[in-house]
Amino acid sequence: MKYVVFILVMICMSCKNENALSVDVSEDIVIPKHYIVATTSDNMTIDGIANELSWKNATFTDNFIDIEGVKTPKFNTKLKMLWDEDYLYVYSEMEEPHIWGTLKQRDTIIYYNNDFEVFIDPSGNARDYGEIEINALNTVWDLYLNKPYRSGGKPDFKWNLDNLKTAVKIYGTINNPSDTDSLWTVEMAIPLKPLMKLRNSAQPPQEGEQWRINFSRVEWEHDIIGGRYERKKENGKYLKEHNWVWSNQKVISMHQPEKWGFVQFTKALSSKDVQFIEDEDLLIKQTAFALFRKTRRGELKYLLKNEPGFVQTVEATYSGGKMLKTTFSKTNSGFEYTFESPVTHNLYQITNEGKLNKL
Q1: Residue of 315, 258, 257 whose CA lies nearest to 281
Q2: Are 114 and 101 a contacting pair, CB within 8 Å?
Q3: At 301, phi and psi to the nearest 5?
Q4: Torsion of CA 149, 236, 106, 173, to 10 degrees
Q5: Residue 352 exposure: Cα atoms within 13 Å on the Cβ side
Q6: Full 3-state SS string of 115-162
Q7: 289: buried, middle or exposed (CB in 10 Å: 19+, 13-18, 0-12)?
Q8: Fold of the domain built from segment(s) 41-265
Q9: pLDDT tens by residue, 289-309
């Protein structure tokens, strides 16, 4: 079947419009961060305090950046991770002089409070991913998306991580505007079994296995009204929230999973001497996703006005003047790009839903 697809692609490429369309996507590309997560040797107590020896040996990430990668956040946020065969452990520290929260019911829209968020795509295909949000009251919202909202994804609010363990530690006093707080922490034990199902596997992560992951912190400007914290309004409308992330998104949207970072699992008790496994085609794949986004909602959207069967050569400049030659095809269901990696010579296709396939 692979060879049939390859022959059909070659036939399509041979009959395309040779008047190449040039586009520069270099400013739209994100090279994700990565984190090598070591195994814990401790019986972990989820209490919001990282006092186990494994936590002390684990490495903190860099401080979070603004989601667009432009401004510097007002307060620092950082995290570290561990794992065992049952759980992925996350511990985060968030500077905050005013710690508050109002939402107490599980699966309410937690980002209406200041919160900490986890996004996990175990298969790394920019589909079938989970999201966890938690506020300073330790109230959780967990949900599943079969694909991103931009591609018509439907969130499943009934998807619950039943064995999820969470704890929040407050360094200060919550919901007390009369004093100045310093920090709140989140510790999570995220069960692996439901995440393994998202990648159609019953096996825990193997040595060197990589998942896609990112973290976000939502921070609202606030007023103190009647001795209570409330989200700040101007002219009757809430001010927009701040979004701070671990791995750069470049836009105010967490639901672009191709930009999330990589977590690589090791069975070692320390990540110190473990090498991150680089994907030789990562930059090429990110270029393809940039083309997808520009075609779906950006400057290349006009290509979708063509009739099915229309084919166009598109040359994408992506890094230091390098160019990726692709074939755009208008299909009955939308569009697709087909291209050969100039690095590995692998043949790829990305569809109008942002699904990247190796042919």
Answers
A1: 258
A2: yes
A3: -60, -25
A4: 130
A5: 15
A6: EEEEEEECCCCCCCEEEEEEECCCCEEEEEECCCHHHCCCEECCCCCC
A7: buried
A8: Immunoglobulin-like (2.60.40)
A9: 999 999 999 999 999 999 999
Residue for token pair 């300073």: 136
- CB 117, CB 133: distance < 8 Å: yes
Tokens of 133: 């949000």
Domain with CATH 2.60.40.1190 in the chain: 41-265
Q: What is the residue-wise DSSP string for 46-113?
A: -SS---SHHHHHSPPPPPPEETTSSSPPSS-EEEEEEE-SSEEEEEEEEE-SS------STTS-GGGS
- At residue 288, φ and ψ (nearest 5 deg) are -65, -40
Count the alpha carbons within 13 Å of 98 in the hemisphere toward its beta carbon: 16
Token pair, residue 239, equals 């001010």
* Token pair for 30: 């994100």
Tens digit of pLDDT for each residue in 51-104? 999 999 999 999 999 999 989 999 999 999 999 999 999 999 999 999 999 999
